[in-house]
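Memo to structure team: turn this sequence into structure tokens by end of day. - J.P.
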Amino acid sequence: MSIEEIPASGSCSRCQRALGLAAAKVRGEWYGNASCAEGGDCPLESQAPAVAESLLYPTPNRFFRKRRPRELR
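Reply from structure team:
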């Protein structure tokens, strides 16, 4: 019985995307998937980000309109 090795964190050596369960270790380097490790087209490069960058940062309260006392209840 062999134990498969997967990375806990890190990024692909080629495309710098986050490593997931499909990560492959080739010659001591971690790659996002087998296709990226072989030097072919990386499917991760063609995917859009899962979350828009504007949603990653909180919006300060000063950008929201002031609420009336009745709306605060």
